[in-house]
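Hi again,

Forgot to attach this to my earlier email, sorry! This is the prediction with adenosine monophosphate bound. I've pasted everything inline since the attachment limit keeps bouncing my files.
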Amino acid sequence: MEVIEGIADLKRERRHLKEPVGFVPTMGYLHEGHMSLVRRAKKENSTAIVSIFVNPTQFGPKEDLDKYPRDVPRDLEMLEKAGAEIVFTPMAQEIYPEGFCTWVDVEKVTENLEGAHRPGHFRGVATVVAKLFNLVEPTRAYFGQKDAQQVVVIKRMVGDLNMGTSIVVCPTIREWDGLAMSSRNSYLSIQERRAAPVLYRSLLLGRKLWEQGERNPDDIRKEMAGLIEKEPLASVSYISVADPETLAEIDTIKGKALVSLAVNIGKTRLIDNITLGE
Ligand code: AMP
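Structure tokens for the complex follow:
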């Protein structure tokens, strides 16, 4: 496995790689969710490239950029074991040199959900992913369904800008009690960790209501919110029942629906989702 920090080195190395190339962009502090993407990239391609970059432009001024968990030595050990060929660990100064002023702004699908609560977040995500795609030139890139809106935004960007990379979406990997794996779970205290599965439990309640024939998103949201409110450490940021492609809120569920939510557990903001009708 080769660890590359510089853009020039990556570009030089890229010319000699065996095609197809699978790419997994991450912010590091890797867990089984990330590793499921890496294993899939390995399986479906001749070369697997993973990037570790805590992208400053996708964090709001009051968000957790400074305290975002980092452990690159441990990440590298995990990636070596998984058989990744190349790990790209650029410095922020090289990704965003002085004078940087070009941004990728995906409209409409960034207006709701996380986009509404984290202004500028998806501009940062789309810009860094576009830059990484230009550098890595992947055949396929692997993203987790855990970040459902991110998948929609990246697919839209790739389509709209005629990028040549296929986007592969991988299922959400969960802890034994249903909590979606996330680097941010490391912020949780023992009590908060015990409370955190309430996100998944409320999603399962939403699914159960739908299975029983409920098609009114207001009623589903109300029941889900009621369950979360019973947990004293949890407070709802939003609960959404949306069209999985446009992310517009649905009046009556007819076909597929993306049920997604963000909940603060103490000071930690967690997100999760499931799709109905799949
Ligand atoms: P991050 O390091 O949080 O930017 O995540 C890097 C990639 O891993 C993104 O495509 C995420 O959607 C994906 N990912 C994060 N957590 C999970 C999970 N629990 N299951 C599947 N994919 C995940």
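DSSP finds ten helices and nine strands in the chain. Residues 183-276 form a domain with the Pantoate--beta-alanine Ligase; Chain: A,domain 2 fold (CATH 3.30.1300.10).

That should be everything now.

G.
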